Amino acid sequence: MEKKAIFLDVDGTLVANHGKMTEQVKKAITLARNQGHKVFICTGRNKIGIRNELEEVNFDGFIASAGSYIEVADEVVHSRYYDRKLIEKACDVFNRNNIVYNYECTDITYMSPKMMEFFVGGNNEEATNSEMERLKAEQSDKFNVRDMNEYDGRGIHKISFIAMKQEDFDHAFKELKENFNFVVHDMFGSKNINGEIMSKLDNKGTGIKRIVDYLNIDMEDTIGFGDSMNDYEMIDAVKCGVVMDNGSARLKEIADRICKSVDEDGVYYEFIDLGII
């Protein structure tokens, strides 16, 4: 088969519940690259947030911060930060509506203690106090988290948020929808509204197009794997869009293929079904 450029989301696609890649998934990536295919991470996480994945198996590059930061073979292909005035506006709106948020820079994530509590607690409501402290420390290390009060003015690629009430989110959305693209996740259940605000200029689809142009790859030879609505532009952009069985129902509507869930090593088995390995 023609050599493919394959783009893989992380959470819900490569890993489950912020865990680690299984040996099967790592094997699939290695075998695909040995066959001459190009394999890239394509994630909403910032660069520091994927350091574990980059250490566990070799990739040809990555799209991070939902298209706002891109590297190919250790070369920075694209990097864009929010306009300062837009950051000030978003923070003012979030603060007035009791919404907690973080700043996702390239190598540091700035987060308030309250945001960390919600970020970790959303998936671990039954955890004991000691377990919660361990999880907080684990996530702080993974994303190189610093207290929001330590923010030093460096560039911000993306902002994630958690609203406790629907009406708070609705007010913020109304004020910011002209300036940012909103993505809302269901990863933290129904109690809170978890999401991201992203640049109007960058997304996973534009990131893929930048890599395709940079490497002179034909878009006909692109495959994307995702599970949530921040993968929409990726699945829409590639020639073959694969959505995990655990993925969003709305995302499945535009999928070319549905594969096994992340818990069933869907990436590995779909690589086999597609003839990649």
TrEMBL record:
GO terms for molecular function: magnesium ion binding; phosphatase activity. The keyword Hydrolase applies. Keywords: Hydrolase. Transmembrane segments: none annotated. GO terms for cellular component: cytosol. It holds the Pfam family Hydrolase_3. It comes from the Bacteria. This is Cof-type HAD-IIB family hydrolase.
